[in-house]
Amino acid sequence: YSTLHRSPIRYIHVKMLSLEEQAKKNAAYKAVDENFPENAKVIGVGSGSTVVYVAERLGQLPNKSDFVCIPTGFQLKQLIISNGLNLGSIEQFPDVDIAFDGADECDESLNLIKGGGACLFQEKLVAGSAKKFVVVADFRKKSAALGVQWTKGVPIEIVPNSYAKVTADLTRMGASKVILRQGGSAKAGPVITDNNNFLLDADFGKIEDPKLLHAQIKALVGVVETGLFTNMAKKAYFGETDGAVSTW
Ligand code: 5RP
Fold it and tell me: Which reaction does it catalyse (predicted)?
């Protein structure tokens, strides 16, 4: 027995979440609760700080041993394992029943900017393989139009040695700023994606036609994928500041 065990005082550890964290959790829990398909076998789980709560909720399901989860990056691979879920890959399970993922920005037509966490290719691969794709986010991600709330630019995955050419192409196309994403310190150099590629962030301001812009960027030699997700999401859940969850 330690003195703590004998102490009459009981310490209760309550994890206080910030407004944003609580909003993410509320959105993720509700999205899973309302959309998890009966008898689902393959679940895609995206990347970022909101899907942490998707993995947490999936890990609370009584039938969690009956389905396999497909991550879109290293972060979720770890979380799938730590939540006691079955881990699979998109190569093994290309038919995904449902995918949940976060977004950097979402408009009312469910066009998205994604890739703030550098996982956009895997995210698009998994979302594009899913019968249903559901977005989970907090109130800050709702936007009247893409490029308004998220001002860091459209994330674009490119083959490394094409960065100068694609940067020039994007500038000609009207991007006011194109940045080769860096790894966080002067020494780190460019961010390397899970596919060994580089990322550009191209600022096009307010994006009037996300589908057209995606098609134009995708057509450039050197571009692997863009962070513009159009005609993919079926529903979006947003945790609000008052604890409610709204949907688009
Ligand atoms: C990663 C992504 C994320 O889904 C996006 O950045 C949102 O992340 P968060 O849930 O942390 O706000 O696209 O590439």
Answer: aldehydo-D-ribose 5-phosphate = D-ribulose 5-phosphate
Whole-structure pTM value: 0.91
Please give the number of the atom of ligand 1 that sits closest to the Cα of 137. Answer: 10
Residue 239's nearest CA partner among 62, 53, 20, 88 is 20
Q: Is the CB of 201 under 6 A from ligand 1?
A: no
Selection from 234, 70, 231, 220 nearest residue 156 by Cα: 220
Active-site residue 20, yes or no?
Answer: no
Distance (angstroms) between ligand 1 centre and the Cα of 163 equals 23
pLDDT at residue 185 in the model: 73
Ligand 1 within 6 A of CB of 75: no
Active-site annotation holder among 105, 123, 157, 225: 123
| Average pLDDT, consecutive stretches of 10 residues, N- to C-terminus, the chain (248 residues) | 50 74 97 96 97 98 97 94 97 98 98 96 98 98 96 97 98 98 84 96 98 98 98 97 97
Q: Is the CB of 71 under 6 A from ligand 1?
A: no
- What pLDDT is stored for residue 1 in this prediction? 36
